[in-house]
Design a protein that fits this description.
Elements lengths: L3 H12 L6 H25 L6 H26 L6
Length: 84
């Protein structure tokens, strides 16, 4: 199984420029790990006795849709302005 750091290294290679300043790398690494921590807390909460399997599935689906919307918006915003 891969470690969190393994995922970070892949992410860093795919997203950050090799010329990124150390502060950008450091802040991005913190944000990456913070995002993982939040997802870990969510997963742990889904295991609580008061959360049914259906509630857990519904909640994860809601988060997936939210993430897809974020990616869609970021992709649209990342495109250079096109002249008509």
């Amino acid at each position: 199984m891969r470690s969190i750091n393994d995922f970070w290294i892949d992410y860093q290679k795919q997203v950050l420029s090799k010329e990124a300043p150390p502060i950008q790398v450091s802040e991005t690494r913190r944000a990456f790990h913070s995002g993982f921590f939040v997802m870990l807390l969510i997963c742990m909460r889904l295991g609580d006795k008061d959360v049914t399997e259906n509630q857990g599935v519904f909640y994860l689906e809601k988060l997936r849709k939210e993430m897809e919307q974020f990616v869609k918006e970021e992709t649209r915003n990342a495109k250079p302005n096109q002249k008509s």
